[in-house]
Each structure stands twice: as structure tokens, then as C-alpha cells.
Amino acid sequence: MDGRVLAYGGGWLDRAGALRTDPEWISARRADQTSTVLPLWRDHCLVAADRTPVRLAAGDAADLIAVADQTVFLGLDDGAALFAADLSGRTEAEAVRLAGAAAAVDVRSLVGRLGPAEAAVQAYARGILHWHRQQRYCGGCGSATLPRDGGHVRACSGPACGRLLFPRIEPAIIVLVEAPGSPDRCLLARHAGAPEGSWSTLAGFVEVGESLEDAVRREMAEEAGVTVASLSYQGSQAWPFPAGLMVGFRATAESEEIRVDGVELLEARWFTRDELRERVAEGRPLGRPDSIDHRLLGQWLAES
After folding, report:
1. Which of 54, 129, 238, 264 could form a disulfide with 86 if both were Cys (CB 3.0 to 4.6 A apart)?
2. Confidence check: pLDDT of 1 > 80
3. What is the CATH number of the domain that holds 185?
4. Number of domains present in the structure of the chain
């Protein structure tokens, strides 16, 4: 895969892992006038009228932090602390007013408007705040959990438990499968729930006890009836919607046989480069513009 940064990657923050475990240091950073607060609401960015994400100086965000469900230290930006504040417990109108924003929008709707680093930090903030909302209670004893380490750990408050919970990543593989022999063709599928005529690469979550390569072989066989002869790693992409990590592969099938499962995939077929070029000429996108599958397809199309 080429050296261009994929969407939601290339973040510039120093996450200061060795410092965020010190509660006094975190408190000092919250009070520091050079610190910045990034407000979010229910997985949405709060943006100004020009759709620029709102950032508040710590000194101007005291009222907002006081009513936030959670405030998490994200890292240091050129030495200055950056925090994310979750206003999900308020109404949308309240959140917009507290942040001095114009609207709440999905970060994915801002693709092309934000630079890679800004998109990365927005997605990072979204993902970790989402995790906090889902981990308020211990799965072992049911007691409430409390944030620690600047918001990068939650600790069970149960006296006989004390379990520590860390943000979890859900890895998934996404694969561009090529047909054996000539002409060059790649496999695209129409997924359940997708609009008619919408085609994309195949993907799936990695299961317990699997390597990434095992997951590629299993998913291709289960969903499309395709046996993979060889595969190669292409790159990875942070996908915190809510907690994914997309790992891209290219693979070559043993044969041209396809047998879709009829559940996750409704249809699958081999496409030549000319057929993909025709789709592009018709204005049909090659996958989501912010997703690694767009890069996988674009690079394959450019190889002829």
C-alpha cells in the first residue's frame, strides 16, 4: 500500500502514557490555560457554522466540563494537553449551546474537510468516549466502574473485585480477492441491506483464537465460498465506529467458483478493471471514500 495516510490515521498527539497515570498531573493539565477541550455529543463532533470542529480553551470550558459525563485526556499537542468532554447526557440543543457550536455532526461526514491529523483526533475522541459509556459497570460483579489514568482505564469499585477494564479494539479483515489466471479480475459483493447495484470488497471480524490470516481464509470461504490460495498484508486503518481496526489484505483465489451465503452476501461476482472504470465514469464510488477498501480498489485499478 502506498505511503499516503488513511483516514483516521496519522495522529500527531503524544499520548503521554507514562504521565497520564498521575492524577495530580492530570488535574494540573485540566487547570492549565494552555490546555484545550474537544466537546462531543453522542458520538458526534460539535462544529462551528463553517463545520470546523469546536475546540475550547480550558479556561473557557469550566462550565462545560462541570456537566460533562466524562472528560478524557487524549494527549499532548506540542506540549499542550488536549481533553475530550462527553456531553451525551445533555440534549443536543444543550450540548450545542454549551460548546458554542452550530451543530452536531458525524465525523465521517467531514471527510475531505479535515486534515488527516484532525480527523484522527476526532475519531480517537469519539471512540474512547463511546467506550466509557459502554463500560460503566463491571462485567464480573456488576459494580460501578470508575475512570483512572486520565480516562484510559476503568476500575471496578467492588470491594472484592477491583477488576481493571481497558479500551478494547475489535479487529476486522477487509480483502481484495483476485481471480486466478487472465484476465485480471477482483471479487466484489453486494451485502445484505446494501442498495441495488452497490458492490464492495469482502470483510469480517476476527474471531477468538484466530490469526488475521485465518480470518481471511474463513471469511472468504463462509461468505463467498472462495478458497484462498495466497494472501498478503496491505495495511491497517483505525476505524473507531465504535472500536474497529480494519486490516487490509490482498488474496488470490484457488478457482473462480463463487457460492454466496445468502445471509451476509446476496450476490458476488468478478469484475475486470474496465468494468470498474466504467462504474467510476458513471459516478459510482469505489467503496467509502474514507475507508481502506477505497484504497485497495483504487490501487488495483491503477496497476494495469
Report:
1. 129
2. no
3. 3.90.79.10
4. 3
pTM over 0.85? The answer is yes
Q: H or E segment at 118?
A: helix 116-134
Which H or E run contains 155? strand 153-156
Domain membership of residue 273 as a residue range: 170-301
Amino acid at 1: M
The pLDDT assigned to 107 comes to 93
If you average pLDDT over every residue of the chain, what do you get? 94
Residue 204 phi/psi, 5-degree rounding, is -175, 160
What would the grid cell of residue 137 be?
459497570
Domain end call among 131, 150, 179:
131
- Neighbouring CB atoms inside 10 A of 109's CB total 13
256: cell is 473462480
CA distance 259 to 224: 5
Q: Are residues 60 and 21 in the same domain?
A: yes
**Residue 301: what residue type?**
L
